[in-house]
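Progress against Task 2.4 (sequence-to-structure conversion) is shown through the following example record, which the project officer requested during the mid-term review.
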Amino acid sequence: MYNYENFSPNALVVTQRMRERARELNSAFVGAVHILFGILAVTEGRGHKVLFEMGVGIHDLELSARSRLMELEPGSHMSTIVLQRQAEKVIDRAWEEAELLNSRILGTEHLLLGLLRLGDGLITSIEFRKAGVTLEGAKQALLELLARENAAS
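Structure tokens generated for the chain above:
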């Protein structure tokens, strides 16, 4: 399990939102796509801001990912929702991205980069590809966002 005390406040909200969305959609698990839903829900988070600055239609991305998920998993009505291995891999990759950016706190921006690093075959990778979102593009947009934040402070 993960030590959530090193998650930023917004990343903690993402973990709450991803579990809520899994329950709303009657999912038996929290997968990578639920992490995406959490990132999209936390509009103050850098992950959401990076996608917005890249010109991603946030609402369209969420609807498309939700539709694809419903095709693959019509609902299971389980009372206990478990973290799927692919979601664990996203968090592992997110920690690696945080380290590369010299951050000891995991933020929504790192979760976004972790999703992008996970690879092909997932709902998120398909939806990101359709929206024109790449790992390199997201990293560049994040660095620009961080530079603006640092200049403003």
